[in-house]
TrEMBL record:
Native species: Bosea psychrotolerans
Protein name stated in the entry: Peptide/nickel transport system permease protein
Predominant localisation class: membrane
Transmembrane helix among keywords: yes
Domain ABC transmembrane type-1: 74-262
GO biological process, one term: protein transport
Subcellular location(s) of the protein: Cell membrane
Keyword terms, alphabetized: Cell membrane, Membrane, Peptide transport, Protein transport, Transmembrane, Transmembrane helix, Transport
Transmembrane segments: 12-34, 78-103, 123-147, 195-219, 239-262
């Protein structure tokens, strides 16, 4: 309850939560409101929004219902964001935890690997992975998770470096607890709050990365994603700009919602801000 009270003290965090709940509601009701295939031809191409009651948001240049693609695309974007974030955070926590706990040559070796991943921009590395392994939605999601872990690894390492010599860790060593128990059972729970907050950043970036791939026609064309819809509208951007603008607004709202929720969690979990 205390965490909830701290969270709702921030108006921007509440707004972010409401926006995120709205996106979740879209994803949950997509199959009920639009039970047919969202990629199936629905009517005349390039119908403007609100000009036909059958197509509230109009149709794209292939005659597909934009509203159906927006609602079903919410599922894809949230799925990619959540799964890629879980993959990224799990890799980052594992590497950062071992680096921060053991130090020495283990820390040096793992941080060199982390720096090697950070040498290339994550989008460029993502393009390489997609080019090599294909552009199915599963491959794209896993690839986004793989390129997004270095920052969470560094954050976890910093938390472990500050916690590994605390009294409760020394007490655990005295009791004969094994390293795995100390790392994952004692230190990690205390190091998680900033990592959980950072997960919202990873999720927002994951949604943007998939949209960028889809815009370049490098994502899975067989799913109704917002990025694919933006890419489809690229050819008619000057005259029927709404085809790209509507999914662009959906991406903007979702990323903004996730970012505001993450900032709200940071304000609620950060002990230095609790007294404000």
């Amino acid at each position: 309850m205390a965490l909830v009270k701290l969270y709702v003290r921030s108006p921007s965090a509440v707004i972010g939560l409401l926006l995120l709940l709205a996106v979740l509601a879209m994803a949950a009701t997509a199959g009920w409101l639009y039970p047919k295939d969202p990629l199936a031809l629905a009517g005349r191409p390039l119908v403007w929004p609100f000009s036909n009651p059958r197509f509230l948001l109009g149709t794209d240049n292939s005659g597909r219902d934009i509203a159906a693609q927006i609602f079903h695309g919410a599922r894809i974007s949230l799925l990619i964001g959540v799964v890629a974030t879980v993959i990224s955070i799990m890799i980052g926590i594992t590497i950062g935890a071992f680096a921060g706990y053991y130090g020495g040559w283990v820390d040096t070796a793992l941080m060199r690997v982390t720096e090697a991943f950070q040498t290339l921009p994550n989008f460029l590395l993502l393009l390489v992975l997609v080019a090599v392994f294909g552009s199915t939605i599963t491959t794209v999601t896993v690839a986004i998770g793989i390129v997004s872990w270095p920052a969470s690894a560094r954050l976890t390492r910093a938390e472990f470096l500050s916690l590994r010599n605390r009294e409760f860790v020394q007490a655990g060593r005295t009791l004969g607890l094994k390293d795995a128990k100390l790392i994952f059972g004692e230190i990690l729970p205390n190091a998680l709050p900033p990592v959980v907050v950072y997960a919202s950043v990873v999720m927002a970036v994951a949604i943007l990365l998939e949209s960028a791939l889809a815009f370049l026609k490098l994502s899975d064309p067989n799913v109704a994603s917002w990025g694919n819809l933006i890419g489809a509208g690229r050819d008619v951007l000057r005259v029927q700009w709404y085809v790209s603008a509507i999914p662009g607004i959906a991406i903007l709202v979702t990323v903004l919602a996730v970012s505001l929720v993450g900032q709200g969690l940071n304000d609620a979990l950060n002990p230095r801000l609790k007294g404000r």
